Amino acid sequence: MKYKKLNNGVNMPMLGFGTFQIPASQTKACVLDALQAGYRLIDTASAYFNEKEIGEALKESGIPRKDFFITTKVWIQDAGYEKTLKAFQTSLNQLGLDYIDLYLIHQPYGDYYGSYKAMEELYRKGKIRAIGVCNFSPERFVDLYMNCTIKPMINQIEYHPFFQQKDAHHLFQQYHCQTQAWGPLNEGQRQIFNHPILKDIAKKHHKTIAQIVLRWQIEQDIIVIPKTVHQERMIENMNIWDFQLDQDDFQQIAKLNLGHSEIIDYQCYTTAKNLNKFKIHENSTKEIRI
């Protein structure tokens, strides 16, 4: 495993296990499989509704707490200083932990300034080892950066061959903020596992398409958190450290960029409307794309 040193000196694995869309009933078994396969970075969120099961898996694994890197996130419903403090404690209790390695603002909506102030306080108290944001566009990121005390260490954004946010990634690098990719395999959409360009590159390196895509991101200094419920694919996704892509590979993959997301459009007002309407507690529905 390779690690990335964040801007506060904390080391974070560059490859982790994503748990979005894994039902609570399957989460414990999947996380135990992932841990057995060698994963130590586990990514979740209060809005994934599986923190409790992840906590159970961590405890049952017998692996020392210091070896884990656990990420969770605060949802829009809990935006604001006081509500974020409460939401953080709820996540901490659900996970059965004494501290969180990385705590993120899940969406760039609501009172995220208040949330970030709460996160800064929790960070100073040692309850969080690193703090950051998700889905912040460059202008929102820079605005938050200019108006906070502890600078964001992570911005978790959609990043894959069909949506290559290279300008945003380079901007975050200039501000010493680590880019992390959610949906690094495009959630399996657009026939990514059968794309002819990716097939040719995979054949050339004697690897699978998933391994090529993940390696492509790692070589751009981007942390990845692929999700799968199949242990053989967990093992496959982990096996990306023994080869490198060349310049031609990068040029070929660059041709796949659509320049926009086909998963969620953060530039559309209905996205802000729908995500703000979604409630994760108080008898709310759980069906949403995050």
What is the topology?
Layout: E1 3-5, E2 11-13, E3 17-18, H1 24-37, E4 41-43, H2 51-61, E5 69-74, H3 81-95, E6 100-105, H4 112-124, E7 128-134, H5 138-146, E8 154-158, H6 166-174, E9 178-182, H7 196-205, H8 209-218, E10 223-224, H9 231-238, H10 247-254, H11 269-277
Parallel strand pairs: 3-4, 4-5, 5-6, 6-7, 7-8, 8-9, 9-10
Antiparallel strand pairs: 1-2
Description:
The chain is of the alpha/beta class and 290 residues long. 40% of the residues lie in helices and 14% in strands. The strands form two sheets. Strands 3-4-5-6-7-8-9-10 form an eight-stranded parallel β-sheet. Strands 1-2 form a two-stranded antiparallel sheet.
Give a quick account of the main beta sheet: strands, pairing sense, barrel closure. 8 strands, parallel
Query: What is the terminal-to-terminal distance?
Result: 28 Å
Into which percent range does the helicity of residues fall? 40-55%
Quote the average pLDDT: 96
Please give the radius of gyration in angstroms.
18 Å
Q: What CATH architecture do you see?
A: Alpha-Beta Barrel
CATH class: Alpha Beta
Strand order of the largest sheet: 3-4-5-6-7-8-9-10
CATH H-level superfamily: NADP-dependent oxidoreductase domain
Number of strands: 10
Question: Into how many domains do the coordinates divide?
Answer: 1
